[in-house]
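Limitations
The structure tokens in this dataset are predictions for the assembled complex, not deposited experimental models. Users should treat interface geometry with appropriate caution, especially where small molecules or nucleic acid strands are included. An illustrative entry is reproduced here so readers can see what is and is not provided.
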Amino acid sequence: MPAGYFKSFAKDSNTSEITELKKKLEDNPDSLVFAPLADAYRKDGNFEEAMRVCKKGLEKHPTYTSARVVLGRIYQENGKVEDAISEFKKVLELDTENLMAHSLLGSIFMSKSDFQAAIEEYQKILTLNPDDEDTQQSLKLAIEKAAREHKSPILGKKETTASEKKNQTKESTASVTIADLYLKQGHFDKAVEVYQELLANDPQNLMLRQKLADIVDRQQKESAIDKAGSKFNKNEFIQPPDQKEDVIVDEVKNKAQQSGKTKKEDDSKFTNEDILQVMRRGGKDDVVIEEKTSPSAPLKNDSNPARNIQNPQSKLTAPKLQAEQVDGLKGILAELNSVSGIIRCFLIGSDGINIVSMGETSNNADLGKQALAIFQSTHRSVSQMNQGKLQQVLVTAETGHILLVSFLTFVLIVLANSNINLGLLRLALDSAIKKLDKIS
Amino acid sequence: MDFKKILEETLSNVDGAIGAGLVGMDGIVIDQISKNSSFDINAVGAEYSSIIKNAMRASSNFGLGNTAEILITTDKATMIMMMVGQSYFVTLAINLEGNLGRGRLELKKAIPKFEKELT
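Predicted assembly:
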């Protein structure tokens, strides 16, 4: 295939490239070249032809998500916004982690002033790629605009109708984000205000209760309120809703207002770091609530091995971990670590918490969580590819190797320098896994 | 040289190879070849791209520099992915009985050919 194929992806596509792609498509009408051809037409502003080529190609390759993204962009640039949204949503049905579709949806929602929906899209992108600076900026902008809207209450006090339920869910997610940002800045009163409104609309929402409970917790820590004097208990918020709800919310609000006086009152601008910190936490709280409220969830049937990982504390860590098991794990990891070239190795649980480690230990906690997130994300991709259960991921980089191995309900992380003999590493790993199996 | 030809050559030189493909970092599949109908890179190009991006994050987080190669082992197959320049990667899937070492070697041999075609 000639180099011109790639040039068609560049902005400065020209007629000769279109001609070339067209010829290729004529030579092989079943090929996937229709997508770059349609994209080239789009870049040339020939939307009609772009649409025709893309739709025809998609009739033959309906699951080709990249072509659907191209079609969505054609619609978007041609002013057919609803069609574009529909197309990007189809992409996400096929590929939930398609960053391009999330990003384009985000920009459409922003242009429609649907900031809540835009925030959701940008959050999803940052969950997948936290270092995406453009999206960080877009999210910051969306949150600031949503916060401004929030000041002229978007969550009015009116009765909720069934038809409004769906939209309300969207608003809730965004507002929780806003409340998190207020909390981060120490604006407890504003955060409580947002939670109060959300809870009024959704009294059964245990996540909101947990958030309110967290405020109490934080208040007690930060303003040194005498715990004995506190009228309410954090756990009250995690309980199912009861008649005391309004009283609890008011009490929390009063407490928060007392402490909030020590904080800046009018600094409602969010910094990038604020947003990043909230994003880094994003979603985790929800999971905690789910686990707390659904203790009997069928974890064994979950296709995600990392979610299948039972709470490691309950199985392998103190206090239930037997001394001989600890010694056994240490012994196995020490043996593995003795292989020339291995810098460190450690075993983590489903929450990314380090269970046993050998070699260098600096930063293990952070690295463990990051490695787990990467393993989980790779697992999802492998599942989508219908390639079975993920067992190992070996990443070879400029100055070393990272090996992530699924072991029962844990992930073993091995970091090695670039001089390691990969054959020997595999051998040592096989041996380690067999021994770990025995211990378990 | 045609991309497909390079992929075919790679596939035919590796015992147990199931399929191979050249994919852009945006998930768009440039070309692919498969011996097994259940292995269709076209349908999952974006997933490969996602895996590569995960690996890049891992390399960066662990301070190991740029990612060169990723090896994924599942209970069905082994997939090797190697970067071709900054914007593309080549992938090769091998069944569990396949020759993994040969697979890596053949991919390494194929990379300069792809790079030549891409410049």
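Some entries come with short summary sentences. For this one: Chain A has three domains: 4-96, 151-155+165-288, 312-439.
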